[in-house]
Write a structure and sequence with these properties.
Helix content: 40-55%
Distance between the termini: 30 Å
Low-confidence stretches: 14-27
Number of domains: 2
Number of helices: 15
Mean pLDDT: 90
Number of strands: 6
Order of helices and strands: HEEEEEEHHHHHHHHHHHHHH
Strand order of the largest sheet: 3-2-1-6-5-4
Length: about 325
């Protein structure tokens, strides 16, 4: 699968998640919540769970305690609580019980009637079914304006929600652009966050002498072509191999260990294409050793590949 097709699949999956939020919101505006301590300092782990006849949707992430109006988490002991979560898209009225920073209860969502008009003035269409998801992800009017001002291609309501889900914000976009990637593609930015194409990763790849494109960076992260792995290949004499071939190395299992084993059998420095062909067709060190044991000691790599293609073991 090409890098571009991989990106398309990634974004399609993220948009499906956005659509799921809208579907559940259409069926119910109520649900349950849970809260517990978070591993992230200064945050709590908060979840909103919607239940309907045929579906269940669970959104859980780390929140700042200041998000909960009327809730004091410093109070110890079991107690009944009521608190409000206010978003531009609407508010969540929550009630239930908490004991020592852990609790659960029910919520009711009340959409803000002016939100859709405000978003429309910016250039985004918001239907009632989608407004719940935008409240959950805190797609504020200010955030929408900020993203609009960045002149991103393909930016719509669903992408705004996906941006919030995966952490695409102006800070991330500016940091990526500072590394020489002047991307304006909303889908690519989402794929970057999903697969960990960070400014640090881009910087380290460029420091290795490469000028990767957006799709190549995503493919490198998907298949594990890290700068550390590339440095290992360099020690075996494979310096500045084309990025597409490095990605093919990872896909087909051309590892430093494989190269070392092939070298020990008398094949000191095969071309990158030869290494890929060997892995594709199953020319393993064991296969080569078996042939040598039967007297076939001077076969070229092309001959070895040909034998495997024709089913000769």
């Amino acid at each position: 699968m090409s890098p571009k097709k991989l990106v398309a699949g990634i974004v399609a999956s993220s948009i499906a998640l956005v659509c799921a939020l809208a579907l559940f919101a259409a069926e119910t505006q109520t649900g349950s919540w849970t809260i517990q301590p978070s591993d992230e300092q200064g945050k709590v782990r908060f979840a909103l769970i919607q239940h309907s006849k045929n579906h269940s949707n669970h959104h859980e992430s780390d929140w700042s305690p200041s998000s909960f109006e009327g809730l004091d988490l410093s109070i110890q002991g079991k107690r009944e609580v009521k608190f409000t979560i206010r978003r531009d898209a609407g508010r969540f009225e929550c009630e239930g019980y908490i004991a020592n920073s852990e609790g659960a209860g029910v919520f009711h969502f009340f959409p803000d009637g002016k939100y859709a008009d405000g978003m429309s003035a910016i250039g985004f269409s918001v239907d009632p079914d989608k407004q719940f998801g935008m409240a959950v992800q805190d797609v504020s009017l200010d955030f929408a304006k900020e993203m609009k001002n960045l002149k991103l291609n393909g930016l719509d309501t669903d992408k705004l929600i996906a941006f919030r889900i995966f952490g695409v914000d102006s800070k991330f976009i500016q940091a990526i652009r500072a590394e020489g990637l002047n991307t304006n593609d909303s889908d690519k930015l989402i794929a970057f966050r999903i697969h960990g194409v960070s400014p640090e990763f881009v910087r380290s790849v460029r420091a290795g002498g490469y000028t990767p494109g957006e799709d190549e960076l995503i493919a490198m992260r998907i298949h594990g072509a890290t700068p550390e792995w590339i440095a290992q290949l360099k020690k075996d004499g494979y310096d500045h191999v084309e990025l597409q071939k490095l990605i093919a190395f990872r896909i087909h299992g051309v590892s430093p260990e494989f190269i070392e084993k092939i070298k020990s059998l008398g094949y000191a420095h095969p071309e990158p294409d030869q290494l890929i062909a060997m892995r594709i067709h199953g020319v393993t060190p064991e296969f080569i050793s078996n042939l040598k044991a039967r007297g076939m000691k001077d076969l070229t790599i092309d001959q070895l590949v040909s034998l495997r293609i024709h089913g000769i073991d």
